[in-house]
Design brief:
This protein has 310 residues and is an alpha/beta fold. The chain folds into two domains: 219 residues, 3-Layer(aba) Sandwich (Rossmann fold), CATH 3.40.50; 68 residues, Alpha-Beta Plaits, CATH 3.30.70. The protein is built from eleven helices and 15 strands. The strands form three sheets. Strands 7-8-9-4-10-11 form a six-stranded mixed β-sheet, with helices on both faces. Helix 3 runs parallel beside helix 5. The protein is elongated and about 75 Å long. One of its GO terms (molecular function) is ATP binding. It holds the Pfam family ABC_tran. Its main location: membrane. Keywords: ATP-binding, Nucleotide-binding, Transport.
Length: 310
Amino acid sequence: MLETVNLSKTYKDKKAVDEIEIYLDKGESVGLLGPNGAGKSTTISIISSLLKPTSGDVRLNGKSTIKDPSEIRKVLGVVPQEIALYEELSAYENLKFFGRIYKVRKDQLEDRIQEVLGMVGLKDRQKELVKTFSGGMKRRVNIAAALLHQPEILILDEPTVGIDPQSRNHILETVKKLNEEHGTTILYTSHYMEEVEQLCNRVYIMDHGKVVASGSKAELLSILSSEDTIQVHLSKTTDALIEKIKNMEHVRQVDETSDGIRIITKKGSSILSDLVHAAEKEKSQIVHYQVEVPSLEDVFLHLTGKTLRD
């Protein structure tokens, strides 16, 4: 339905997007992941026809949207990372304004406004000024605005950043329902891996402007099928200890986490004895040691060397 072909965007001497190729089949929910600066937002801006690429193309049903963006604008809804609402207007007034921008027919607009307000759970607050809303409520109005013209494709750029858990859950349920019950094709970016795992059939991982991996969750997890992930909590962590662990046989990667270190080793190799000795030499002790089942976040960390929040 939608694809990018050798898509690139260069700013002076920096390549923000580097010949990426992604596609969305009709009715799919696809995740786009990457650390800050990976090129996700630039990619979304180009797909949305807000930014022209340096080279390459975006095609909707085989037709270039770079040459003629009018067709994709008819079928695309975008929920931007930043709140895009008029604070001095009510939720209803905002939706009425955006409905006219989208050229929703006058005889249908009122019904559409009430329908999308119902989807995001804000019918009873529609007459209140947006400036009085919480961050989560504003984001829900943003989603409602993107749905007014019944888009076939919906792009959501980190729609749950900095909001309360209740609004976050409501947004996730809304996106899931749009995809599963209404057949809306979804492109979803997030800083929360669990959201992508919950919502998306396939995932693209970007880093430094390139797609470094793609596939279903099972396909991405197979990247680590020859490796074990070990979570270790130490009484004390030093740079010298980290360096010793990195130099151990069969150790492929070591990363510090909020509660210790994560070690990726060759599958089936035992490093516990070496780890105990190394810790003792640095006057540290192993508090907890666990071999984990690989997660999508482990794959992400393995490929990019960064967590989503970096």
